[in-house]
Write a structure and sequence with these properties.
The complex is a heterodimer of chains A (183) and B (247). Chain A is built from 6 helices and 1 strand. With 183 residues, chain A is an all-alpha fold. Classes of the chains: A mainly alpha (183), B alpha+beta (247).
């Protein structure tokens, strides 16, 4: 499969996740006043951890594809984001299978750190002067490997993943389930 | 005093109760919807990029002729090569340090002989004060610096007697803004431009570690200073005139 196809596929998924995250946030805002929003959240909540795990695993698979198959060498900031994302894929997958929602605090902390790095990386791509003003001859962080739809780059993909994970794992569980959470 | 060091027994996490009847209908709809969206993205990606499968490998050469300072001014179109063989004579300069004193100051730079994109000979050798400018087509800082240098020339601010030679280095076909010959031609690069070899021999010979990279040589070929990163034209002009006056 050509690399451009994978670029487009991952960029489309990113846009979909952005839209999904926006819808979920919107539903959370109006949940108390809208039965529809509450119903949407109740439909998503039981699979929220699984969705988070799928997003983290997808991000991990994507980053491995672009580095190992497409040979896009990860820069320093890319590595920091990987350090945050890869454990999330493992933690969320195990948590989803065990239905263990006690991981919420750890996941949010890791994802928030990753999101901060992604944000800085994306801004660095847009405004290279934020950095030293020079591109490293090896792997500069300002370098944009590819861009889709005018704004989707690798750091934005990572940020979208982190933000969606935070949004999903902080969803309230189904209201009819008297569950016991330890946070 | 007796203390109770016994830690309280850790409560076993209580699993979240699930819907006794399995997942609800709306949850299944959500799952199916997610899978459908993933499939839709895959189909769109395959359909929209299907025609690109044969064009992803960019060609290293283009058949356009050259204009401006990036090559010769011969009347017949010459084959454009984005990288050219480079011959280095002499000892390579030490790598440009991130901080501290530059160990290359006063060291005679090696002579580098190569060619422009269209094959016209370009060499960096002693003879007159020379500013060597290393640019990478994919580097956003180089993309910002190049127009400033062009404007520097068109405004007549280049110090008299200074020779400027560009080196298009670290050229990679799968990186943005490729090919560099087109970028520099469209940008109006006015000075000779050497196409560095695929293994960046010219860059290595001058101790390149980052872009854009400037090396100022006196007429004997000794390094007056080296600097890396975007630089304002007024500051660049001052650095050149000061170093030439001191030399």
């Amino acid at each position: 499969m050509p690399t451009t196809t994978v670029q487009t596929f991952t960029a489309l998924l990113t846009v979909m996740v952005i839209a999904f995250t926006a819808v979920v946030i919107g539903c959370r805002v109006v949940a108390g006043r809208s039965a529809t929003a509450t119903a949407v959240l109740d439909a998503i909540a039981p699979i929220a951890d699984g969705l988070g795990a799928a997003i983290a695993a997808g991000c991990m698979a994507g980053s491995l594809y672009f580095s190992e198959v497409a040979h896009y060498l990860p820069c320093t900031l890319c590595w920091y984001q990987r350090i945050a994302m890869y454990p999330l894929a493992v933690i969320l997958t195990i948590a989803a299978f065990r239905r263990d929602h006690g991981m919420r605090l750890y996941v949010v902390a890791i994802a928030a750190l990753g999101a901060m790095v992604s944000t800085y990386h994306w801004f660095l791509e847009r405004f290279p002067s934020l950095d030293s003003g020079a591109c490293s001859a090896s792997i500069p962080c300002e370098f944009i490997w590819f861009e889709k739809f005018g704004f989707v780059t690798l750091p934005l993909m990572a940020f979208t993943g982190f933000a969606a994970i935070i949004n999903l794992v902080t969803l309230d569980r189904p209201r009819n389930a008297a569950f016991n959470e330890e946070i | 005093m007796a203390t109770n060091n016994k830690r309280p027994a850790r409560a076993t996490p209580t699993p979240v109760p699930t819907n006794p009847g399995g997942r609800s209908r709306s949850t299944w709809i959500a799952i199916i919807g997610v899978l459908a969206l993933i499939a839709l993205a895959a189909v769109i990606a395959i359909v929209s990029t299907g025609d690109d499968s044969n064009s992803t490998a960019r060609q290293p050469t283009v058949s356009t002729g050259s204009t401006g300072g990036t090559g010769s001014t011969g009347s017949s179109p010459a084959a454009i090569e984005e990288t050219r063989p480079v011959t280095v004579t002499g000892t390579a300069l030490p790598s440009f340090p991130e901080s501290g004193t530059d160990p290359a100051l006063g060291v005679v730079a090696p002579t580098v002989a190569g060619a422009s994109f269209d094959g016209a000979p370009v060499s960096i050798q002693p003879g007159q004060p020379t500013l060597v400018v290393f640019l990478a087509h994919w580097c956003p800082h180089c993309q910002r610096e190049m127009p400033l240098l062009v404007k520097w020339n068109s405004a007549g601010q280049v110090p008299a007697g200074l020779q400027v030679i560009g080196v298009a280095t670290s050229t990679t076909s799968d990186r943005p803004n490729y090919p560099p010959s087109k970028w520099l031609r469209n940008g109006g690069w006015p000075w000779p431009m050497m196409a560095d070899s695929s293994d960046t021999a010219a860059g290595v010979a001058f101790g390149l570690t980052s872009f854009p990279y400037f090396v100022m040589l006196d007429k004997a070929g000794k390094v007056l200073w080296r600097t890396s990163g975007e630089i304002e034209i007024t500051a660049l002009t001052k650095m050149i005139t000061d170093s030439l006056a001191a030399g």
